[in-house]
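Quick one: sequence plus adenosine-5'-triphosphate SMILES, need structure tokens.
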Amino acid sequence: MRTSDAVIAVQHLRKSFGSVEAVKDVSFEVGPGQVLGLLGPNGAGKTTTINMVSTLLKIDGGEATVGGFDVRTQPEVVRQLIGVAGQSAAVDEKLTARENLELFGRLYKIPRGKRSARIEELIKQLDLGAFADRPASTYSGGERRRLDVVAALVADPPAVFLDEPTTGLDPRSRSELWGTVRSLASNGVAIVLSTQYLEEADRLADEILVIDRGEIVAQGTPETLKQDLERDVLEIQVGDRNGFERARELLGPDANPATDAETLRIDIPVHGGADRSLALLRQLQDGGVSISNFQLRQPTLDDVFLALTGPSSMEAEEITT
Amino acid sequence: MTTRNTYDGTRAVVIDPSVALRLRRAGHDTGTVLWRDMIRTTRQPEMLVFAVVMGVFFLVLFNYVFGGAIGAGTGYDYLQYLLPGVLVITALQGAQQTSMGLAADFSEGVNDRFRSLPMNQSAVIAGRTIADALRNIAGLILVAVIGMLMGFRFASFGGAVAAIALATGIGYGFSWLGAAIAAKVRQSDMVGMLSMFWLFPLMLASTAFAPVESMPGWLQPFATYQPISVASDAVRGLVNGMPVGDTITLTLAWIAVLLFVFVPMSVHLYRKVD
Ligand SMILES: Nc1ncnc2c1ncn2[C@@H]1O[C@H](COP(=O)(O)OP(=O)(O)OP(=O)(O)O)[C@@H](O)[C@H]1O
Ligand SMILES: [Mg+2]
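Reply:
Sure thing.
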């Protein structure tokens, strides 16, 4: 352990499923009150990482500790310290929200008196009141998701794992959940949160880990990553094939690997916004390239990954999505 | 030894629980899962219907359709012969529901949460088998009442109670077999199919519906001593007030064997992670 106060510490974590190396080498530390954002596309290894650290999957290599206890050798101790909301809801469909929380609260061995107070508090906080007494099988996707997150918090654990907690939530529920995550953090809870949304990682995380195909491709605070991640993209539609080749020549390494010869489209990451875009367009025009269309747009997660991982990743991603 | 350590100065965790504490917690967890499964049982009354429908179907079919032909060789009024067998079949059907229920836990995802909780993992199965045994008792009483409406008579109240207890017991043993299958394959449809492999041979090649003398010679040794047969024979003796011979002992021995093999096996399979 680098710092002795890390609640969750992971070193060189590895996991393979047959020939698929789902997680190759992932290390991180989360201190009390810190939120670590795991950001990555489908199949990046976010769920696999979370499941290993939360005792749900066997660890193939590397080390993980929670509260200083080894996940591999002392899972029973670790389970007393964690709350998990996995990617797919893990609640009893036939039970109501209240009954589900009562069930998990009992299994966490929360004393009776404290238990019901805690459950009521959480129901209020995450606004489950409207459906708390209906069986979970009747819930909408977002309602079930919220129940699942609340279930992870019943025991007030010092380490919480949330795997894409806001996927499928409407904007209001999403911002409520963000509020919950922030208040957990301010109470000293260490949180690992996976997401596919840049904005979410930006708003919540103290540190972001961008992972792709089982590996960390970028790491840092939102501020330090922002420069790499949040640049606009100039999308240019070229009129003909000759122009396309000519444009590639002119732009050189500036052109994003996302050039598409089929559709004659070129994506260029631009730091300088409008000025830089105009300069680029002018350069192309002067070079004799006919531009049929262009737009300046916000980066998507795809752009982030292109920027961070280069062309080989683009291909891999296209295959998996 | 129980060690309580405050890893961050505020929170107590149990690091090395004593055997006594482990047992107390296993009991608490089993009770909690039982509570949960009883709620599920009351929310799914159709499960009770499924549990008895096959027994009732056999009761009616064999009694009214084949009754004369088979009954001739039993030395009993056929309904008095048939109902005890049907009770055992009903208990077996109830045991099959342990499989289905546990597989549903896997597909609904709630098992994923159980695994992340500081609980005794065996309690998930133990609680369920007990809940299923309780529902089985309700199912057995229901079948007995239907049998009585058809003209069946228990020789004594004590015999009826003992019979239902024994049928519940053999059902309980098979519940753990069902649990082992569910913990292995973890998919409802596969579980349903695999259940047929043990359920039907045991049921049909048994003395539940017809005496062993009516079967081909090569089948007779198996059909005499397999668990469903000895349980049917024992229950038959109890409800009719007839001598039971060693059939009760053999039934209890089968229950012990089933538990001895399938309790550790299902717990092991359930705990297994990728
Ligand atoms: N049980 C499994 N058996 C085989 N391969 C698996 C298994 N679980 C995950 N994988 C593979 O491991 C890789 C990482 O999967 P993982 O679920 O961790 O991705 P993820 O980052 O959570 O993606 P998503 O955003 O889609 O949830 C994927 O290629 C996936 O196909
Ligand atoms: Mg995932």
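Chain A touches chain B at residues 7, 17, 32, 54-58, 67-69, 74, 76-77, 79-84, 86, 88-95, 99, 103-104, 106-109, 135, 151, 158 (CB under 8 Å). Chain A has a mean pLDDT of 86.
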